Amino acid sequence: MSMAAEERSLRAPWVLTAPALMLFVGVLLIPLAMTVMLSFHDWGQYKGIEPVFIFKNWHEIATDPYYAEMFWRTFRIAILTTLLTALLGAPEAYILNRMSGRWKSFFLLVILGPLLISVVARTLGWALLFGGNNGLVNKLLMSLGLIGSPIPFMFTETGVVIALAHVMMPFMVLSVWAALQRLDPQIENAAMSLGAGPATIIRRIIMPQIMPGVLSGAIIVFSLSASAFATPAIIGGRRLKVAATLAYDEFLNTLNWPLGAAVATLLLAALVLIVVGSNALIERRYAEVFR
Amino acid sequence: MAYLELDRVAKQFGTQTVVDDFSLSVGKGEFISFLGPSGCGKTTTLQMIAGFLDPTRGAIRLEGKDLTAIHPAKRGLGIVFQSYALFPHMTAAENVAFGLEMRGVPRAERSERVRAALAMVGLAGYEDRHPRRMSGGQQQRVALARALVIKPSVLLLDEPLSNLDAKLREEMQIELRQIQRTVGTTTILVTHDQNEAMSLSDRIVVMSQGKIEQIGTPQETYEKPASAFVSQFLGKTNDFAGTIDRTVAPTQLVAGSWRAPAPAGLGGPVTVSVRPERIGFGDTGLSAKIITRIFQGNHWLFQCDSECGPAIVIRQNDGKAQPAEGDAVRLTWRPQDMSVRVRAGA
Q1: Per-residue confidence of chain B (346 residues) as pLDDT tens digits?
Q2: Looking at the complex, does the CB of residue B108 fall below 8 Å from at least one CB of chain A?
Q3: Do residues B171 and B240 both lie within one domain?
Q4: How far is B217 from B205, CA to CA, in rounded Å?
Q5: Is B200 found in the same domain as B315?
Q6: How near does any CA of chain A get to the CA of B94, in Å?
Q7: Is B214 in the same domain as B101?
Q8: Among the listed residues B152, B149, B153, B144, the one whose alpha carbon sits nearest the alpha carbon of residue B172
Q9: Does B104 touch chain A (CB under 8 A)?
Q10: Cα dihedral angle (A109, A110, A113, A115), rounded to 10 degrees?
Q11: A interface toward B at CB cutoff 8 Å?
Q12: Which of B184, B208, B232 is the last residue of a domain?
């Protein structure tokens, strides 16, 4: 190969990926770097943003328990949502996988349904069902005399978790579904022929094999739940802030952009750490199943 | 008395009959093959014995007891699946131990039996390997050990060798036969590979379209095929159209210019079936022209154009001169080397 041709073949991958790379750098990396920089700027009620390099915002987040509470709530909601989706989604995927063709595609559509509807419309639906005295379900239960006062749903963590779990369910189901596709179709028969009952087959044979699917679904659900905005904003409202709604409020209501940037940066960093860390752990633990 | 007995077993899916009127009795320790093309119902029959499918009609009995009334988990049969269906998250030893664990065999005895089973299939030292780190042949052996370690009353093999390459398949055939002889387990093998069925089994059940075509020893099914299907499916065969001539005495069987005394009890148009290796070149007989001649090391393969249609002839490479392409030859065979059937539809 001539020198020129060699040079060209070395350049080719860069040239070919350049458009995508430029987009990636332009709309993701640069704004991200600017946000990180912004978090070190100063801000005052009257002077606005001052482009200096100080740790004021970070110090405030680290010392004020208000922020700690906010982040704990964010991760508590994300963990509970993840558990709920795993607990419901894994059996759902298993049952779905055992259905016959036509029903399978119908119910797959039902499960994917939430993804096809705007998150705002879907969350408002929950509000219509459970929102205070006027919520449909509350009204019905109260008129039947089953409950004295409306079920607390709006502005509660439980409400946020349930609504988030509903939104996130497809990601869990699809992830477990993908793991189930890798299963040998005869594997349950094999276990049965060796004398295993249905419960043993689920626990000893199926569960360990779909665990990687559950865990990768959990990572997706966790990171999306921790950074979710619309659902906590509508169900949680002003009273029940999470990291994402807090950053939003700092940016658009208080206009303290540097503090909002610090909150957003911390959320991102925490999520990246958690996701990368748990992913590494899972891959090590389930090396044999992943092969 | 029959050890395993299938009595007029049938299976229907909707209106489609997949297995029909399947009766077979298997002796203890016997090695039986279900042989047929895909879709002939052999796997369905095996799955009915295993209990993964329920027969629509008929009975399956093991030592006189109704097997269909027993849950598949309680039948105590050893099964090797085509895909092996090993548990990928368990080591080889854990895979083999699973059945013993389900039977509540104490830990010490369990590990002893697992070790012995893996040693029997030639996998001593592979205890801690995971299936996905093993070759196809090794996985196959683990599957066999897993099925045999529970001392099954019947061993069911569902196309166990079809995923192996040709050389390994041959090795495994020999090994499988040796293991089966040593352990003495009654075995049923499902296969579409006639060589596999012939080299392994005591008896072959040839199936086609859900029905049994013939049950017999490998020699019987090869030498005396009960139907055109069997002779076509087991090895290569030449079918010549012939007639039985009753105008002469004694009556004669005529195929082209080949003639022989007619077998008793037949008349009219017949099909004469001769294996290619039983045909020789002679001075009289069916006249033919050699189209191609292929040298295959230990034998020659001739494709001929005879007066009764295309014919193939296999001759041992015994060092003697062989006719060349384009030569006019006469094909001849001994009457005992052919099977004669009344020609259907003629």
Answers
A1: 689 999 999 999 989 999 999 999 999 999 999 999 998 999 999 999 999 999 999 999 999 999 999 999 999 999 999 999 999 999 999 999 999 999 999 999 999 999 999 999 999 999 999 999 999 999 999 999 999 999 999 999 999 888 888 888 888 888 899 999 999 999 999 999 998 999 899 999 999 999 999 999 999 998 888 888 898 888 888 888 888 887 877 888 888 888 888 877 777 888 888 899 999 998 888 889 999 999 988 999 999 999 888 999 999 988 888 888 988 999 999 888 888 888 765 4
A2: no
A3: no
A4: 9
A5: no
A6: 11
A7: yes
A8: B144
A9: no
A10: -80
A11: 184-187, 189-197, 200, 204-205, 208-209, 286, 288-289, 291
A12: B232
Among candidates A184, A200, A208 on the partner chain, residue whose Cβ is nearest the Cβ of B85: A184
Residue A11: is it exposed, middle or buried by C-beta count within 10 angstroms (0-12/13-18/19+)?
Answer: exposed
B43 and B154 inside one domain: yes
**Which residue on chain B is closest to A287 by alpha carbon?**
B89
Same domain, B186 and B291: no
Q: Which of B187, B202, B232 is the last residue of a domain?
A: B232
pTM of the shown model: 0.82
Q: Which CATH superfamily groups domain A65-290?
A: MetI-like (1.10.3720.10)
CATH number at residue B55: 3.40.50.300
In this complex, which of A185, A191, A209 lies closest to B89 when CB atoms are compared? A209
ipTM surpasses 0.85: no
How many interface pairs between A and B have CB atoms less than 8 angstroms apart?
Answer: 71
Top residue of B53, B101, B102, B190 to mutate, by most chain A CBs within 10 Å, is B102
B115 and B49, same structural domain? yes
**Same structural domain, B176 and B119:** yes
Same domain for B46 and B123? yes
Count of other CB atoms within 10 angstroms of residue B95: 28
Q: Using a CB cutoff of 8 Å and minimum separation of 24, what contacts does A237-244 make?
A: A237/A154, A237/A155, A239/A155, A240/A73, A240/A155, A240/A156, A240/A157, A240/A160, A241/A70, A241/A73, A242/A70, A242/A73, A242/A74, A242/A77, A242/A160, A243/A70, A243/A71, A243/A74, A243/A267, A244/A74
Residue B62, beta-bridge partner list? B4, B65
Which among A194, A200, A288 has the least Cβ separation from residue B132?
Answer: A288
Domain around B209: 4-232
Does A193 sit within 8 Å of B75, measured CB to CB? yes
Number of domains present in the structure of chain B? 2
